[in-house]
């Protein structure tokens, strides 16, 4: 095997790893952006009137995903306010 073939394999292998690293970085950035958005949405609801009933994150392994990924990521519920007035 020639010197340039060896260099080519080394640099191509590095590019492949960089591509995998880039993909992992992109997924990490997308997750961070999604989490930040969910936190923003949650913060916009007044705790006196809404409660957080459920909060999910999508999970999966190599093409296998739970059915719960189809459910909403956030579920907020309007709280019932009971009060009385005396006159």
TrEMBL record:
It comes from the Bacteria. This is Uncharacterized protein.
